[in-house]
Amino acid sequence: MRNAQVWSSRQMNRLLLLRLFFLGVGYADSSLHAQSIPSSPQQLTKLVEWVKQGDYSAIADHALVIPSESPTVQESSFFTVMATAITRNIDINLSDLAVQQATLDWQQSKLNLGPSLNGNAGQFYQSGRSIDRFTNQFVQKTIGSNNFQLQGSWVLYAGGQNRNALQQSAMLRNAAVEDKNTRLYSLLLQTAQAYVQWLQALDLEKAAEAAAAVTQVQVSRTELLYKEGAANKGTLLNIKAQHSNNVNTLAAAKNSTAQFLLQLKQFLRIPYSVSFAPLPESLTTTEEHLKYLDGLNPMVLMDTLLARRPDLKAAQFRKTAAMESISIAKGALQPTLSLGANLNTVYSDNAKRITGYTVNGTQAIGWLPSTMEAVYAPVLEYNTETISFSKQLKDNFGQSVGLNLSIPIYAGLRGHNQITAANIAFKRAELTRLQIVQNAENEINQAMLAYKNARTRLVSAQSNVDLQQENRDYVKARFAEGAATAVELQIAESNYTNSNFNYISAQHDLYFRAFVLDFYLSVIQ
């Protein structure tokens, strides 16, 4: 009986040590929750406003400067990350070049409505046998000559082809601008998603690190208790298994953080060798703003957004441009009336004038029929010189003006086939526009549904983490009184940790879903 009382006393001491141990190494709640630094929707609105206005210098002022010789870049806020993505993205730079090219085409189309003017000049040499116009004798010489010509033409009527081409190039230029805006908005969403995913991974990593640190302390203390006989081997193995799970969770969280950071660096085109440390802002939002988003009417949002979405604008511009292509193809079947004018002059080193002559005797040039007497004429040797360049240009100056009418009659049905091809292109442009409308409607509906689901998920996760915390505290109290086992307490701690992980994930998911709606609202403002 005495031995039984002694054994019971030792057992009570071990239980007391275990209870004091578990109650002394509980989780710090604040270390598991995400930070709560309110975000600024006004920054997003300002960024979208700069994009609309094309004020990329203002965006560049807020972007990172990444020197090639520096191994690190400074810490970057969410706004700085977004601005950097815009200024350094290659697709955006390519889109900017496309806008410049479309602008040049539009300007050229305007100039095509005016007249054209061409100048020609030629230098020619003729070598061989010719007749001297002064002596009427064959001579062997080389003659040099020049001709100069100035030609102008102006298309007065061509079935409206040039005018319609101007309208078409204007529509294509507008479409190129909207294509760039589409890529900009898509980049903003992708960068924001990568940033939020990195923040979520970072918070989960911190929570996993805290959980692993707690179980590490538990393992160390349980080993001491086991050596002193105050804990059994099953309790020790259970604690070690839990710690191993936490270590694996921490390793996975670190890998996830590194992966999302690499993805973010790729959006910003930061070299892999450069260390990059964005600021770990928590982009949570206020309850008042969430209630505002709750009250959004999906149909009103959809109708307003469809009128302002850049990809839909670009599709509409291309549809109008395709319509102009039909008019251009029809105009090619019409007559073309053009006005032409020509100014020309020539110069030749064979053009000479007589400056004097010399009589070198006489020669018989014939006979009188009646008397058969010879008729003599003086033999003249002329002194000549080449007429000056300026005088020849003036004397030989010519000019002309006229109208030219060209009527297409038959060209292998090329014109009719071009009209058919233009109609096909117009139908394709209209179907593309309808497809974009359908995709936009799906995106908006999905965004609204995802936001509502995220709201519900956060409320559920908040309720779950509160209940799990209450359950953990209750099990702690029961354990202190000897009414609960160490395994029960460990299970309660594990359930609370998992619920906190879900809560952190729900927080970031809700922010991103709210960010998407804020983005859409910024576009339509």
Q: Using the CA coordinates, give the radius of gyration.
A: 45 Å
Fraction of residues in β-strands = 15-25%
| CATH H level, superfamily name of the largest domain | Outer membrane efflux proteins (OEP)
Number of beta-strand segments: 6
Question: What's the architecture of the largest domain, going by CATH?
Answer: Up-down Bundle
Q: How far is the first residue's CA from the last residue's CA?
A: 86 Å
Domain module tally: 2
* Residue share in helix: 55-70%
Figure out the total of helices.
Answer: 14
Per the CATH scheme, the topology name of the largest domain is Outer membrane efflux proteins (OEP)
Note the run of SSEs as H and E: HHHHHHEEHHHHHEEEHEHH
| Overall pLDDT level | 82
* Strand arrangement, major sheet: 1-2-3-6
Which regions contain 5 or more consecutive residues with pLDDT less than 50? 1-39
CATH class of the largest domain: Mainly Alpha
From the spread of the alpha carbons, the general shape counts as elongated
Biggest sheet architecture: 4 strands, antiparallel
